[in-house]
Amino acid sequence: MVPAHVKQLNFLLAADGRIRWGLIAAIASICETLPKGQRAKITVVDGGIPADMIARLKSQYADGTKEIEFVPFRWPAGCDAPALEGSRLTYARLCAADLIDSDVCVYVDADIAVTGDLSPLFERARTDASAPVWAARNRPDDS
Fold first, then answer.
1. 3-class secondary-structure state, position 78
2. Contact yes or no for 102/8 (Cβ under 8 A)
């Protein structure tokens, strides 16, 4: 259950045309696990997602409680950082503060399927802002 003072849950994802199918699954899993009636905004950093897929995602999942926004990925002028694993979108999460109109958001990789309600992460982040919060295990042995 989301505390009353948490009005909207904000999520950030990043994808390009190569991972668009993972993006569909990630957005669907976020929407399906939200508590009924919970307001949420999903911001996607767009590194080249086909326009027809953007339109389909917006029409399928945006409703009175959910909003999906696509923002183009803009590489900072003069920055020449290397691509990690083939995509500069790896750096998109570093720009989260510039993309989200909230003090708290949950970044979800576009190849992650959410299997449970993530709203407790927002409460934890608000009450203990000194520690980052992770929702997924990094390794099968929980280390």
1. coil
2. yes
Paired tokens of 13? 């994802």
Per the CB < 8 A criterion, the answer to whether 13 and 44 are in contact is yes
**How many whole angstroms separate alpha carbon 32 and alpha carbon 23?**
14
Residue 108 CA to chain centroid, in angstroms? Answer: 4
What is the pTM (predicted TM-score) of this model? 0.80
Q: Are 40 and 9 in contact (CB under 8 A)?
A: yes
* Eight-class DSSP state of 107: E
| Distance of alpha carbon 98 from alpha carbon 112, whole angstroms | 23
DSSP, res 13: E
Which two three-digit tokens encode residue 11?
């999520």
Q: What is the DSSP letter of 68?
A: E
Q: Please give the pLDDT value at position 6.
A: 55
Rounded to the nearest 5 percent, the helix, strand and coil shares of the chain are: 35, 20, 45
State pLDDT tens for residues 63-77.
889 999 999 887 767
- Other beta carbons within 10 angstroms of residue 54's beta carbon come to 16
Selection from 88, 112, 92, 116 nearest residue 43 by Cα: 92
